[in-house]
TrEMBL record, chain A:
Organism: Taishania pollutisoli
InterPro entries linked: Acetyl_CoA_COase_a_su, ClpP/crotonase-like_dom_sf, COA_CT_C
Protein name: Acetyl-coenzyme A carboxylase carboxyl transferase subunit alpha
Similarity section: Belongs to the AccA family.
Keyword Ligase: yes
TrEMBL record, chain B:
Subunit details: Acetyl-CoA carboxylase is a heterohexamer composed of biotin carboxyl carrier protein (AccB), biotin carboxylase (AccC) and two subunits each of ACCase subunit alpha (AccA) and ACCase subunit beta (AccD).
UniProt-annotated binding residues for Zn(2+): 31, 34, 50, 53
A GO cellular-component term linked to this record: acetyl-CoA carboxylase complex
Stated name of the protein: Acetyl-coenzyme A carboxylase carboxyl transferase subunit beta
Cofactors demanded by this protein: Zn(2+)
Matching InterPro entries: AcCoA_carboxyl_beta, Acetyl_CoA_COase_Trfase_b_su, ClpP/crotonase-like_dom_sf, COA_CT_N
Subcellular location: Cytoplasm
Length: 317, 283
């Protein structure tokens, strides 16, 4: 069943009208083509209007849209049957909130890694809502090192409301696990591309987010804290999430403008959640292009560029 | 315990503003844990560690520099670097006003100070946080000052130390704050390549983005006793699991037991232990 957010309501109404009009046409034999055409034009115009004027908070809502594709959907669309998922951190367990494995992209092997959210109630629990434990980050690092050993590029898909803040996570060193990943990713000898496909919450996102190309899909967010938590801490109330979303400058366009991500990947006009095939195609094309560019650079130079890029981030007087 | 060592420490230390304010008329200090009362002069000599219960009271960068550098002498690096306001951030207060007011009330320019001096006659570079400055929060200035301090350490071929005391990221710098974790980690890689030791001292409290980056990346991770050390804050963990936290959860002792610290050091022995660690890397 399709889910519509509050601001998508006019789209739902028009889609319903179009469906009804078509049905009337079919049932009565009256030619409704003109009427349908008119409504479809209106739908395009309305969609454009809504999606061109989205507030930061609305983008946050879209980034969490239940109909949006998650990591495994992207990997399977890109690599098809060649994707072979591999499991475990070789220490504690296999973290279901972090997935990964090799697969072919245009005939060449790529290591795909990402946080995985669940597609229904049962799977959301199974995937721990896309919140990895330390073993998830260690699994990701193991896979990255494996890729490095065999000189394969790495693509990470970021989609997490945060690293899991649980008791065992603390016992097993959530902070150390994320820190280690950030440190090691900075020095990987192979090309690394990081794509924020949904939520990019803080250290939990950065733990697989250090790369030569860090890019955001258009309707995603990336920041140091979620707007809700920011509201509760700075305003001491959950009521200010819209204002917090504005203040944090967490949208893809703001993050790009501030030089904190390298690129924005455009989504279909009505959002990635309404047209999976289109966004898979766009993302695949972008990855191919980034890889082609990055492969031309000498590995040492690539690492040097990566460190320099992050070193430049910050504003001071 | 090395009370002799304390007597060697020279007097006339600058106390952090907050401590001063909490002491009635600036004359008395009450231990937060066992409530023993000290004169300000007594507790200063003890570096704010209670003689009776060993509780480590909060101190700032100046006190740590006095403890660690030979004769308390050092050259501060990039002393006057201050925050920009890249996001034009405003919550209940404008970020620029918050920074201005904090500079005025603390006499500090940001939540970290970096300095070069000597320890046992050998060059040494330290970056030390000040909790009084917006909770020791990690923003662009902290990231940049640490990065430059690491460059300096590489240039003069000196070991490097970060003393952490932070609630984590500075929200008012949002994405900029987050990326400092990556920035400093990149620099630490260069320090490592130069084969220079990095000691990370975690003090009460060290949480959030600081724990999830450079504080956990030391060649040696060491901590003061009973410090709160964690990624998520205890309140958040408690809400997540829906029950009370076990005693001693997220203390230095807990973190040591789980394998993420090399040793715990009483502040009275800090200088000697760090000096020995560095000697062992050097000899
Ligand atoms: Zn006491």
């Amino acid at each position: 069943m399709t889910t519509y957010l509050d601001f998508e309501e006019p789209i739902r109404e028009l889609e319903e009208q179009i469906a009804n009009t078509k049905e009337i046409g079919e049932n009565t034999g009256v030619d409704m083509a003109d009427k349908v055409g008119e409504l479809e034009k209106k739908l395009v115009a309305t969609t454009k209007e809504i999606f061109s004027g989205l507030s930061p908070w609305q983008r946050v809502q879209l980034s969490r849209h239940p109909d949006r594709p998650y990591t495994l959907a992207y990997i399977k669309a890109i690599a098809g049957d060649t994707f072979q998922e591999i499991h475990g951190d070789r220490g504690v367990k296999d973290d279901k909130a972090m997935v990964g494995g090799f697969g072919l992209l245009d005939g060449e092997t790529v290591m795909f890694i990402g946080q995985q959210k669940g597609v229904n109630t049962k799977m959301r629990q199974y995937r721990n809502f896309g919140m990895p434990n330390p073993e998830g980050y260690r699994k990701a690092l193991r896979l990255m090192k494996l890729a490095e050993k065999f000189n394969k590029p790495i693509v990470t898909f970021i989609d997490t409301p945060g690293a899991f803040p649980g008791l065992e996570a603390e016992e097993r060193g959530q902070g150390e696990a994320i820190a280690r990943n950030i440190y090691e990713m900075m020095r990987l000898k192979v090309p690394v591309i990081c794509i924020i496909i949904g939520e990019g919450a803080s250290g939990g996102a950065l733990g697989i987010g250090v790369g030569d190309k860090v890019v955001m899909l258009e309707n995603t967010w990336y920041s140091v804290i979620s707007p809700e938590s920011c509201s509760s801490i700075l305003w001491r109330s959950w009521e200010y999430k819209e204002r917090a979303a504005d203040a944090l400058k967490l949208t893809s366009s703001d993050m790009k403008k501030n030089g904190l991500v390298d690129d924005v990947i455009p989504e279909p006009i009505n959002g990635a959640h309404r047209n999976h095939e289109a966004i898979f195609e766009t993302v695949k094309k972008h990855i191919s292009k980034y890889l082609k560019d990055l492969k031309k650079v000498d590995p040492d130079k690539r690492i040097d560029n990566r460190i320099k890029k992050f070193s430049k981030m910050g504003v001071w007087k | 315990m090395s009370s002799n060592w304390f007597k060697r420490v020279k007097e006339g230390i600058t106390t952090s503003t907050k401590e001063k304010k909490e002491t009635p008329e600036g004359l008395w200090h009450k231990c937060d844990k066992c409530k023993t009362v000290y004169t300000l002069q007594e507790i200063q000599k003890l570096y704010w560690v209670c003689d009776r219960c060993s509780h480590h009271g909060r101190i700032g960068s100046e006190e740590y520099f006095q403890i660690l550098f030979d004769d308390g002498k050092y050259k501060e690096l990039d002393a006057k670097l201050t925050s920009g306001d890249p996001l034009d951030f405003e919550d209940t207060k404008k970020y620029t006003d918050r920074v201005k007011a904090t500079i005025k009330s603390t006499g500090l320019y940001d939540a970290i100070r970096t300095a070069a001096g000597k320890l046992d006659g050998h060059d040494f570079v330290i970056a030390c946080m000040d909790f009084d400055f917006i909770g020791g929060s990690l923003g662009s200035v902290m990231g940049e000052k640490i990065a430059r301090a690491i460059d300096h350490a590489i240039k003069i071929n000196a070991p490097f130390m970060i003393i952490s005391k932070s609630g984590g990221a500075r929200m008012m710098e949002a994405g900029f704050s987050l990326m400092q974790m990556a920035k400093v980690s990149g620099k630490l890689g260069q320090l490592s390549e130069a084969k220079l030791p990095y000691i990370s001292l975690l003090t009460h409290p060290t949480t959030g983005g600081v724990t999830a980056s450079f504080a956990m990346l030391g060649d040696l991770n060491i901590a003061e006793p009973e410090a709160l050390i964690g990624f998520a804050g205890p309140r958040v963990v408690k809400e997540t699991i829906g029950r009370d936290l076990p005693d001693g959860f997220q203390t230095s002792e807990f973190v040591l037991e789980h394998g993420f610290l090399d040793y715990i050091v009483h502040r009275g022995e800090l200088r000697d232990k760090v000096a020995l660690s560095l000697k062992l890397f050097r000899s």
